[in-house]
Structure formats: structure tokens, C-alpha cells
Design goal:
CATH class of the largest domain in chain A: Alpha Beta
Radius of gyration of chain A: 14 Å
Strand content of chain B: 15-25%
Number of strands of chain A: 8
Largest sheet of chain B: 6 strands, mixed
Strand content of chain A: 15-25%
CATH class of the largest domain in chain B: Alpha Beta
Largest sheet of chain A: 2 strands, antiparallel
Helix content of chain B: 40-55%
Distance between the termini of chain A: 10 Å
Helix content of chain A: 10-25%
Shape of chain B: globular
CATH architecture of the largest domain in chain B: 4-Layer Sandwich
Number of strands of chain B: 17
Order of helices and strands of chain A: EHEEHEEHEEHE
Number of domains of chain B: 3
Radius of gyration of chain B: 22 Å
Oligomer: heterodimer
Strand order of the largest sheet of chain B: 2-1-6-3-4-5
CATH topology of the largest domain in chain A: Alpha-Beta Plaits
Structural class of chain B: alpha+beta
Amino acid sequence: MPSRIKVANPNRCIGCYSCMLACSRTNADSVSLIDSAIDIRTSGGIESGLQIIVCRSCIDPPCARACPTGALTPRNGGGVVLKKELCDSCKVCADACLPRAIHFDREDMPVNCIHCGTCARFCSHDVLELIKTEVL
Amino acid sequence: MLSNVLYIDLETGEHNIRDRSDLFDKYIGGTGVATQLLLEECPPGTDPLSPEAPVIFSIGPLSAIFPCVSKVVAMFKSPLTGELGESHAGGRLAMAMRFAGYGSIVIKGRSPKPSYLSIHDDEVKCKDATSIWNVSSVEVIGKILRDVEPGKGRRSILRIGEAGVKGVSYANVNVDTYRHFGRLGLGAVLGSKNLKAMVISGTEEVELPDMEAYKGMYKKLYEAVVDTEVMNKYHDLGTAANINVLNQLKGLPTKNLKQSSFENAESLSGEYFADNLLLRKIACSNCPIGCIHIAMLKTPFHKGHEFEVNHISYDYELIYSLGTNLGITLAEDVLRLIDRCERYGLDVMSLGGVLAWATEAYERDLIIPPDTLGIAPRWGDTDTYLKIIDRIVKMPNKFYEIMAKGTAAAAAEYGGEDFAITLGKLEIAGYHTGPASIVGQLVGVRHSHLDNGGYSIDQKAASSQLTEEQMVDKLIYEDYGRNINNSLVACLFARGVYSEDNIVEALASVGINKTKEELTSIGREIFLAKYQFKKQAGFDLGDVKVPARFFETISQLGSIKEETITNMIKLYRDKTGV
């Protein structure tokens, strides 16, 4: 059964960024914030709380619908699969996603969540969970 | 890897970047590198508030890449003590510096006009800050800069408040609203440079030689942090848990250390704060512990349920300084006092010390109504203390000008040195635990309880007898060893995880090979380099005085004899050579 990331308890986030470092370390072999598919950020300073921006695993993903080259296609269980060789970095996908869960790395390639659950394993406050989803 | 130093001259607004592998290879980073930069940039005789005086920020090779390596060291010459100024802050600064690619930032000169620094990767600009120069609230300054600067979401914003602008000797620097470079007056130094704020962000990747080794080590350290009692201790009640503990042990300075326990401690306890006032907890970047405790204070200001709501971070030292040591009986009043200090950008511990000294000096008629402009400080009187804080920042007369220079300066002018509870001219931390705490703060390079954790050595001595020499040996071991933690710059709350073995292994996993013996020797060398600076600035360990109050009030280890302190300092000097 495929899995997906769920933002289970957003208000428990302490803003440590352990999930972001875990994502880029595991999926991009890098130590950075921009290679992470999950994005934790403040909005209006630390006093105003934290935003957790991650792929919401749409079954009919608007980013894939918007993609003119077929680089992004729906993933079984929700979200998208990226074929890098087809992507021409037009960035149309980013605007199609309301939570703005797609951003770009230094080579202008989309950084998209593969729902592997690494971020949840490195969350010490149960903000993130990896849950099983129905196969369609 | 991490070896770039960004040099900024505020006089001209120009900057350059130099590779200082020479320093990072030898002294690791953080406090080790910053000490060398301070010796290079701040020759003997430099006035701490002159344009020539440098401000140095440093991180280390593990910053932002391993859990809890989340702090930044600031070094400068202290306007409060006139000697070594060193302060550490968390927040997001370490991560921002790391991903902007700077191991250290050296700031010199005085900007011709009020200014702030905008640093985003390799774009470094000195911008006009005239319109925010007189904004008194550090929180509002953060809000204004957030709107005009890039790097939204993960940048770090440093700023000074009115206390820094006016040159209060213990003005602090606010980092990301809830963290600070506190204690030795960095805020006044930035104020003297016409530097109101600094915004920094970065998007670089850190390149490592062996990703697999790094991943394995990360997991090991992360699990150690999350799975050990470290997490519970600092995350649950936080450092405020110490109020009840030290009160029971008779180690809690109360009413200017006239007492070492407080009849109202329970109402200021970590338990009371957590149950009644705690709003949420947050973390420094890259730290899964999350020890930053934020209280919510709701104050009615008008009929019809009109409330002002403030979010205020609290810790043990703040509750001691503006609570027990002033005889305050309500936690909500402690928060009001902390909030006022935060707004002005004042160091809470030093300000609390100044107020405690003034209250007792007033009781003894050493200061009189014409000095205080008719204000009568009294134990537990929050409203009066708020008025005094305002005047310390505004400095309407000579008395308040001297209060703005700290307790030691005030006692030198008005008397009462026997109860001016400072060590090395710095207002003490909240531990009257015994001789190791007193000696530890006296000999410590920055006169901080965190230089060597003397209070914790006293606590060990309480359960198993330690001789004077054994206590001194433990202090020296910590004084040397913590210079390594502070060169990384790992948070000292995680020092149990960053053991010597783990440090050696973590450094090796990112391609830096140092043995335990080498690290010990580097730690000692850094310590001695700091003492070189201290001596050049006139600090003499042979000449320090301990106010009588420390010997009059019973401590956790019973009454402390002056002779014990004298012996321990002599032993310390003989063994370290300082």
C-alpha cells in the first residue's frame, strides 16, 4: 500500500528544521535547506508561528495538470512523480500548487516530495506522520 | 570547508572576504577562531565604544549540520567590564551564517549615519537605518525589517533597542525576537557603531567529503539528543525547573542575596509558569530539544475586556534576576519586568543586579530621593522597578547614568561594595551553591556560570566530599573543555551528547581529524589566549575581590569562608599559570 506524508499536528512544530535537513540529506545527498521537499518557515517572525509547506498528495494534482512537458505525472497514492529528463524548468507547476509545495534547486529542477517518510522519522514532536493510503 | 571571514568596515560601507583556513584549521571555529580575530583586531588600549573596536561573530565546522550545534559566539571588548567580551546566542543566526557561507563576520568602524547590515549570501550591503534608529521596541524593529528584506522564512535578524542606542553598558542584542547576545554589553558596542540591526540569510549547500559517514553520525547524535533525558530536562519545564530545586537547597539568591531561599518561590516556580502562563515552546534552528519557553501575559488596559497580549520568553536566570532577587511575589510581575527589559534591549541579569543593589542601597541611605528623583525602590514593588528601568535607559541625571554603567560602577560611586553582588564586575548568575560557583565565575573567561559550571561542581561536592583542590581541578577541566564545545559552537545544554569521543567522531565524519589529546591541548590554548586578552585589558586574577555578602549568606554547602576562596584562586593560578 503506498504511503503519504500527513501534517498531523501543525501547531506542535517547534521550528527546529530537523525534517528539512533530513530530507535534503537523504534524497539529495546534500546539506542544505533548498534541496528539501518539505519547507518549514516562519511567517511574520518566530512570534507568529510556523508554516509547514509540503506536498498535500492530491489525487488529481494540479501541478501535473499544468505541466506542459509531461515531466510531472500523478503518483499512485497521491502527489506526483518527476521525470527530470522531461522537465524544462518552466516553473508553471509551482504556481499551480496553492500551498506552494514545489520549489526549485540550484539547477532549477523542481524539488518534489516522494512521500518517503524520512522527515517524519526526524520529527521529535509528532508534527508529521507517514500514513498508508488506498491504491487507486 | 568553513574558512571564509567576512570583514565589514562601517566607516566606508565596504567589505571583503578572506580565507582564514590558517585560523579554522588550528582553532576549529567559534570561540577559538573569534579569540584570535579579537587579538588581531583589538590591540591593547582600544576603547570598547570607539570605531576601532571590533565585533566578531563566529560559528564552527559542525554548525547547522549536526543537531544542537546551533549557537554563535560574539566577541568584543566589554563596555561593562573593560575586558574580554564574549556572548553566545541561539536562534537562527548560526544556520543563516552557515548557509550564507561565513565562518566569521568581523565588523569595524562607525557608520556616518544610522545603518543596518543586509547580508544575503554574497550580497553584503550597509543600508540606511535613520527611520528605525529611534524605534524603541526591538520587536517592532524586527517587524519592519521583515517587510523590506529578502530571505523570508529562515533569515536571522539581530537588532538593538533603545538601551543599545543610548549606550547602557549592559545593553544586549536581540536575535530573532526570543534569543540574545546578553551579558557584557554587545548592544552598546553596536550602538556606538551606529549599527541598529543585521539581517542575514543564505542558500548555499555545505559540501562534505563523505555523505555516508555524515549520515551515520547525524543519526547517532540525533538519537542521543532525542532519546536521552537531556530532552526532557530542557523541554519540559525548561531551566525554570531550577527555582524550586535551588530554593530547597538554599542556593537561590533572594533580595540581593540577603537570603538563599525565598518564601514565595513556589509562586515563581517553573511548575507555576508551565501550568499557568506557558503558551508554547520553540527551538533554535537545528535543535530538536526546543527549550525556548514562551509565556503569554494578558494585561487588561481598559474597561470592557480590553487586553494587551505579550509573548515573553522566560528562563531560570531571568526569574531569579527580576523575581526572587527583587523579592517579587507574582510570576506575572516577573513577566512584566522581563518584557520591559526586552523592549529596551537590556540584559536582564545585569539589570536585575543593578535594581537589587539599588534597593538595598536605598534601605541603607547610601542613595537618597534626590538621587533617584523621588523614586523609592522597595522589595517586591514592580511598578516602581518599571519606573527605574525607564530612567536607566533615559538617564535623566547622574545617578541613572551611573546605574546604566552597572552594579560595580554604581557601588564604586555610592558605596555598598560589600553587597554589590558581582564577580569580575559582572552581576552574578542565580546560584549561591558554594565556593566552586564563586571561584568559577571569578576565574571564568567571561565571568559566566557557563564558563565552567561551578554550581554543578558544588552540587557534586554536596553528595560526595570534594577537597578544594579537587574542585579547582574540575573547574580547570571544564574551562579548557568547554572552549572546544564553544568552538563548534554546540549548545551547552547538549554537552552530555557532545562528549570528547563524540566530538572527535563528528569532526572526523566531516573530514576534520583531531585526536582527543589534540582537542584538550587546543582548548587550553584558547583559554590562555583569552587570558592574554584579559591581562592586556587590565584584568588581574591576583587582584579580584569577593563582596562580603557571599560569605554572610548561607549557601547550599553551608557558610562559605573567605579563606576557601583565596586558597582556591591561588591553586587555580598555580595550575593554569594565569
